[in-house]
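Translate sequence into structure tokens.
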Amino acid sequence: LIEKPLAMSVREVNELCADALERSSLLHVGYTDLHNQAFQHLEEFNIALERVEARVTGLGPIRDDCSPLWDYGPHALAMTLRLFDEYPARIEAERVNVMNEAKQFNASVRLYFSQRRTADLLFGNAGARARQLKVFTGLHDLCYDGIDGSVTVNGQKVVPAAQSALHRQVNAFVSDVAAKRFDVTTLGLSVWVTSVLAECERQ
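Result follows.
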């Protein structure tokens, strides 16, 4: 069970994934939002996405080992790419709200997907605390809030059972270990997340 980001380069992620597949090893990545019951409730709608907006921000921390891009980005990207279930055709990224000698900033990212669908993401350590993902479709407007563990559907707020996402993820990992299940569900997603972050960093 590895804390995000899985690695700091596409090459390292590919090597880890290849090694896990070759050895039939169990490898989970710490995308805790994917185990949040509110986010899973949102996924149950099986919605046809048109547009997504995500904001994962906070004031700090300032880390020497990991930039805000790699610290906050995996949360927003894991949720977004999980819902679209495809790699974006185009990526546009820029740094905004830069402060404290560039140790604090937010990344403003737009992802372009098939059928003219888009996602607008803001993530980093230079903004008010937020962990929110909005989904827009022809029928529903949905909003996931990872802070209070709720999902709002067309203005109606639903709060699923309050077991913590981290607790649920650890339990899932322990269950897979006990059952000797070879779970690779997050490996492809990790390659996508790392690839998008690498492109954002390049820009």
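Note: Strands lie at 51-59, 90-99, 104-112, 118-124, 126-136, 141-145, 150-153, 156-158.
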